[in-house]
Amino acid sequence: xxxxxxxxxxxxxxxxxxxxxxxxxxxxxxxxxxxxxxxxxxxxxxxxxxxxxxxxxxxxxxxxxxxxxxxxxxxxxxxxxxxxxxxxxxxxxxxxxxxxxxxxxxxxxxxxxxxxxxxxxxxxxxxxxxxxxxxxxxxxxxxxxxxxxxxxxxxxxxxxxxxxxxxxxxxxxxxxxxxxxxxxxxxxxxxxxxxxxxxx
Length: 200
Prior knowledge:
The active site is at residue 108. By secondary structure, this protein is of the alpha/beta class. The chain has a single domain, classed as Rossmann fold. The chain contains eight helices and five strands, in the order αβαβααβαβααβα. Helix 2 (40-53) packs across helix 8 and helix 4 (78-97) runs parallel beside helix 5. The termini are far apart.
């Protein structure tokens, strides 16, 4: 709820439809969710490069990057995680309104929070990509050394270790990075976007 009642929405003469028409395509948010180390950021980087090469205007939002600026005042409590995702949902909505193809890579462990982001945009503008990898695989990769710290008790509330991860029930796309290569994962997502008419 807004804290002030003295605010009024100010409409623009340039709408999302105008921006999409200028870009000659729909805008949407591709929301990557999965455990730390599953490959969300890596895949989003490569997908953005692929889409850029296809002439798609994009912007990428990444969990760690956002916590360097906009959300640097948050920790990893359930309350902070919820507000972190709420804010990123609102930023993603603005990016979609700007006509951009937005790639948002966040652990986002709670289904309710992801569903709330989906509800912020219109039907067809939220594409949930479940980056599926077992805890064992992620822990073996451990690119940031976080699982090791979590196992040693240096990090509390770590998703997949002592905090829950709620996998999507019906994601638009699932990539299994236990089995699929980076290139295969990217092409799985591109194939979905092409099939649904988001890109040519």
